[in-house]
Automatic annotation (TrEMBL):
Residues 70-181 form the 3-dehydroquinate synthase N-terminal domain. Binds 1 divalent metal cation per subunit. Can use either Co(2+) or Zn(2+). Its EC number is 4.2.3.4. This is 3-dehydroquinate synthase. Its cofactor is Co(2+); Zn(2+); NAD(+). It catalyses: 7-phospho-2-dehydro-3-deoxy-D-arabino-heptonate = 3-dehydroquinate + phosphate. SUPFAM superfamilies: Dehydroquinate synthase-like (SSF56796). Zn(2+) binds at E187, H250, H268. Catalyzes the conversion of 3-deoxy-D-arabino-heptulosonate 7-phosphate (DAHP) to dehydroquinate (DHQ). NAD(+) binds at G108, V109, I110, G111, D112, T132, T133, K145, K154. Pfam families: DHQ_synthase, DHQS_C.
């Protein structure tokens, strides 16, 4: 199966996203023309290092590129100040210069942290994303949102810093645990819900085979998702308008992640899945769409084995007022007021102001009830 390429069109900062099998083996050849000094620093996590780092190092060796590697602990807790400052100090110790390259090899945690480290190191060095989870391939490696979490909320510390190249090697998804694959699927489904009803229908038909490992279906889903994200980012790089659509499900999802301590109790894509279901429930309650739409979303999530209600989260959650307080740190808040991504139907999302918080409370209460 040949690789595909999507370009994120941002003028002088445009970059290609390559999607296909075997791309890590070809990484050295792809990167060599981009470095004068032939020196890179690789940030990864301990699990990914054990599975895929050797292959990347061999490919870089073959292209005459010297490399240093740092593997951070796997998991969302790494995306905070302690591991971030460790990574930046390490890059400084390794004497990574302005014209060198930082490579993020891993999922969204490593991509977000390494991208932010590259953004601030010597006031900005270039970086390459080699995403190894479904979530990172379809979403976090593209678009330049980088950063870390604060105890008060997700991604509250960060910068927009676009990568120079993204290599999404579909083969690496074969080693991804099922739960992490499904978490990434939450973001894949989000694209259908926010702007492409036909793609959502395709997912309803093909989602189970995609999860079972069909490589051709996976490549199609990744390329389609990346193209949708690239189009939105090209229109609105820094989220003044349309880009907020990519936040469908995140006002709820991020609050739930903070409420569960950024832990294994709720992965990011699981929070997005519940958040999308809640956003559709809220849309129906506000009379924006019929009840059939949220029912269809919830049915698909259940068919895929993803959570859709608060009661599906295997953890005690704080009360509704605490969740609403956590939502108050959302980056879409304007003049102290929450904005939500709601929908007039599947594929018809929009940014909503002045949402009735009584309706939000009712939706949260219903989603908790057995
Ligand atoms: N910047 C953005 O636009 C953006 C978009 C979406 C999500 N995010 C962020 O991404 C993060 C979630 O990313 P994630 O789901 O990739 O989590 P992750 O990076 O924690 O990876 C999930 C798990 O999979 C393991 N793993 C990674 N690749 C593997 C592979 N090929 N085989 C086996 N195991 C592998 C990791 O070690 C980890 O344990 C969140 O912090 C979220 O906020 C950012
Ligand atoms: O790229 C975007 O824009 C997104 O909103 C994609 C989201 O899936 C992602 O989780 C993002 O990090 C959330 O952004 P935030 O600004 O709400 O932290
Ligand atoms: Zn997300």
């Amino acid at each position: 199966m040949p690789a595909e390429e999507v370009t994120v069109q941002l003028g002088r900062r445009s970059y290609p996203v390559r999607i296909g099998p075997g791309l890590i083996d070809g990484a050295g050849a792809a990167i060599a023309p981009m470095t004068q000094r032939k020196r890179v620093a690789i940030l990864t996590d301990e699990s990914v290092a054990g599975l895929h780092l050797d292959r990347l190092c061999r490919s870089l060796d073959g292209a005459g590129i010297t490399h240093a590697e740092l593997a951070l602990p796997a998991g969302e807790k790494t995306k905070g100040w302690p591991e971030f400052s460790r990574a930046v100090e390490w890059l400084i110790d390794e004497k990574i210069e302005r014209r060198d390259l930082v490579i993020a090899l891993g999922g969204g945690v490593i991509g977000d942290l390494a991208g932010f480290a590259a953004a601030v190191l010597r006031r900005g060095v270039r970086f390459i994303q080699i995403p190894t989870t479904l979530l990172a391939q379809v979403d976090s490696s593209v678009g330049g949102k980088t950063g870390i979490n604060s105890a008060s909320g997700k991604n509250l510390i960060g910068a927009f810093h676009q990568p120079t190249l993204v290599l999404a090697d579909i083969d690496v998804l074969k080693t991804l645990p099922k739960r992490d694959f499904l978490s990434g699927y939450g973001e894949v489904m989000k694209y259908g819900l926010l702007g492409d009803a036909k793609f959502f229908g395709w997912l309803e038909k093909n989602g189970p085979d995609l999860a079972a490992g069909d490589t051709a279906l996976r490549q199609y889903a990744v390329a389609h998702s990346v193209q949708m994200k690239a189009d939105i980012v090209a229109r609105d790089e820094t989220e003044e308008g349309d880009r907020a659509l990519l936040n469908l499900g995140h006002t709820f999802g991020h609050a739930l992640e903070a409420a569960t301590g950024y832990s294994e109790r709720l992965l990011h894509g699981e929070g997005v899945a519940v958040g999308c279901a809640l956003a559709f429930e809220l849309s129906a309650r506000l009379g924006l769409c019929s009840q059939e739409e949220p029912s269809r979303v919830a049915a698909h999530l259940a068919a895929m084995g993803l959570p859709s209600r608060l009661r599906d989260i295997p953890a005690e959650l704080p009360d509704d007022e605490s969740l609403i307080r956590l939502m108050g740190q959302d980056k879409k808040v304007r003049d102290g007021k929450l904005r939500f991504i709601l929908a007039r139907g599947i594929g018809k999302a929009f940014v909503a102001e002045d949402v009735d918080m009584g309706a939000v409370r009712q939706v949260l209460a219903e989603s908790r009830a057995a």
